[in-house]
Amino acid sequence: MGELIDLVLLAMLAITAIRIIFLKDLFAVVMLFGIYSFLSALIFINLDAVDVAFTEASVGAGISTVLMLGTLALTNRKEKESSHSSILPLLVVCITGAALIYGTLDMPPFGHPNNPVHEHVAPRYIEESPKEVGLPNMVTSVLASYRGFDTLGETVVVFAAVIGVLSLLGVRRQEENDTPESGFRAHHVLQVVARVVIPLIILFALYVQFHGDFGPGGGFQAGVIAAAAFILYSLVFGLSSAFAVVGPKFLQLLASIGVLLYASVGLFSIYKGGQFLDYNKLAADPIVGQHYGIIIIELGVGITVFAVMLSIFYAFGSQAERSNIR
Amino acid sequence: MFILDIVSSILLFAGIFFGLSGAFGLFKFPDFFTRVHAASVTDSIATILILFGLILQTSFDINTAKLLFILAFLMITSPTASHALAKSARHGGLLTLPEANAKQQEQTR
What we know:
Shape of chain B: elongated
Largest sheet of chain A: none
Structural class of chain A: mainly alpha
Number of helices of chain B: 4
Order of helices and strands of chain B: HHHH
Largest interface: A-B, 9 and 9 residues
Number of domains of chain B: 1
Number of domains of chain A: 2
Strand content of chain A: under 5%
Distance between the termini of chain A: 57 Å
Strand content of chain B: under 5%
Oligomer: heterodimer
Number of strands of chain A: 0
C-alpha cells in the first residue's frame, strides 16, 4: 500500500515537473512549484521523515511561493521567448543525465540495511542519543547537537541570503511614508479573519519552536511560520502598518542577534572548558547542559529565520509598492 | 467499535465523493465564479467529512483534539480564501458568464 502511494505521488511529481518546464505563464509555474513542494512533503511523510516534510511544507510550499510571487510582482508574468536554439543544452542535459543514471548503477541497493549510510554514524545516533542527549525527537538531537556546527553554517547561510537581498534591493526609507496604502482595504472579511487567525499562527509557531525537542518541528519551521503570520498581516493591512509593528531596521538587528545567540553558545562552551558547541559543559549535568544548549540554539535559529524571511518579503514588497507609483 | 468504523468509512467515502465532484466541477464549469464555487466544495464539505471520518478512527485522545483544531482552522480559512478569490476577481472586472453574454449581445446590437 505504501509503495502504491509512493508511485502515485512520484508520478504526480513528474507530471508537475514536466508541466513547469513547458508553461510560459510564470504565475502558474509558481503555483505548480507550491504543488511540487507539497507532493514532496507527502512523499517524505510516507518515508516517515516528518521533520523534513514539515520543513518542505512550510518553507518550500509556504514561504518560497510567497517570495516568488513577490518577485513576479517586480518582474514580468510571462517568460521571455529564448532566442537561441535549445539543442545544445538538451544534449548537455541528456549526457549528464545518462552519466548520473550510469553512476547510480554502482550505488548500493536502495534501502538495504547494510548500506554504508546505515552503518557509519547512524547506529550511534540511534543507540546513544537517548543517553547522551536525552531528547525524544532524535532528529533534533542530530540537527542541534551532533551536527550543531553544520546547523550554525545553515543559519549563517540564511543570514547571508538576507544580506545579499538587502544590498541588491534595499528596504524603503522611513521618510517615504506618503506612498498609497497597499493591502486589501476593501476586504473586510479578510481583515476580520486575519485578526482571528494571526494570533493562532503565532501561537502555533511558538508551539513548533519549543515543542521541537519532543515532536517534529524546530527553529527553521517555527521562524518560517511566524514570518508567514506577519506576511499575512502586511498583505491584509498594508506594508506601512506592518512596518509600524516590526520595522525593517529592527528585523536586521534580530537577524544578527539570532546568529550571535547561536555562536555565543559555542563560545560559552569554550569558556566553560569544552570544545565549540559542546553543550555538555553548559551545566553541571551533561544532559541538562544538552537541553539548555539545544533550546538556546533553536531559539537563535528561529529568530534568524523569522527575521530573514520577513526582511526579504519587506524588500520585495516595498520595491513593488515603489514601482506601482511610477 | 464496529459501528464507529462503519460510520467513519461512510463519512470518508462521502468526503471523497464531494472532493471528486469539486475537482470535476473545477474542470467542467463554464466560468471562473462557478469554478470557485466547485473548488470551495472540496475545501468545505469534503474536508469536514474526511476530518470527522478520521476523528472517529482515533482513540479519542490528543490526536482527536489536534484534528478538531485543524478542522476549526480550515473552517475559518478556506471559505475566506474562496471569498477573497471571488471578490478579487470581481474587483479586477471579471464578469460572470450571463453578464459576459449580455454584454456581447449589447455590443452586437
